[in-house]
Known about the structure:
The protein is mostly helical. The chain has one domain. Helix content is 61%, strand content 0%. The protein is built from three helices and no strands. The protein has helices spanning 6-20, 24-28, 32-49. The mean pLDDT is 88.
Amino acid sequence: MAVYPAEKIYEEAAFLGYYLHWSREEVLSMNHLERLRWCREVSRINSQLNNEEKRENIFEQI
């Protein structure tokens, strides 16, 4: 089993909690790949809504 850095788990949980108003339990019940997918989608949508140019998505680095 791979160990995922706690700092990244907190980052993903905070991001999803902030943007989607999901509880800690809801976010942490997902595995890393599912959380990461949601983070990428929310980040992409947020960039589109803000009419931002294509820029680096911090969740794409993983």
